[in-house]
Design goal:
two-stranded antiparallel ribbon, about 80% helix, about 5% strand
Length: about 290
Amino acid sequence: MSYELWILIIGSLVGLSCGMIGCFLILRKMSMLADAISHTVLLGIVVAFLISQSMNGIYMLIGAAVAGIVTTFIVQLLNSGGIQEDAAIGVVFTSLFALGVMLISLFASDVHLDVEHVLMGEIAFTPWDTVDIPFIGAIPKSIVMLGVILFIDIMVIFLLFKEFKLTSFDPSMAAAIGIPVLLIHYILMGLVSVTTVSAFDSVGAILVVALLIAPGATAYLLTDRFPVMLVMSGVIGIFDATVGYYFAKWVDVSISGSMATAAGVVFLLVWIFSPHYGLVSKWFKQKAIE
């Protein structure tokens, strides 16, 4: 395959996986927690490297998942203790992220593990880092990791769809009928963590937040049916990544930054022109009432 096609596939996998997971964050009003997790997974990655002395992807994913769950647990602990959720998130993610930066400086300064790489990423280089797959040949490692994570995301969502849906819309009712709300919450945060770390090489920890939130928020303005929103957000994520790539190629700018910008622009256009919830539609409805 061509270099350009590999880039589009990688970007589409990121947009699809982040878009679907982001729907649950939107419904749970936990968008800022996604930002926190996208930063604190750095600590999990560093600790995983220090323990295993390996940059193997599976260790990174395990470290990221643990860091995401720990972040969620501490935020929830502080919140239940009387601290406002936004303040708890701000304190936890800055502290854990800073600790990760310190550990890199102290123990991992001589390996390919730096803050800029984790935060910003660079999708332009990912097609050159390949792995040989039997009967297929050499393909980018990012595609293998993103494909595995996407499969895991889809399977977990499929198997726990009822639980995710009920705990997102009405956690009190879910608890009343015996669904372990807290466990489902931690499972979701684990998915957010591993999805985030799988996208580091592509869009980085900061820019992945845009693909976690913007596609889901865009789909939220276009439909009132959750299954449709879930599918639509994945499609929008792919569209954002594709448009972002071609715009970056046209004006010669950062590909990952362009993808995140495209996600924001698409959301803005839908926010203005959405048939039911857009500003223009609301303006016409108000005029009709008057």
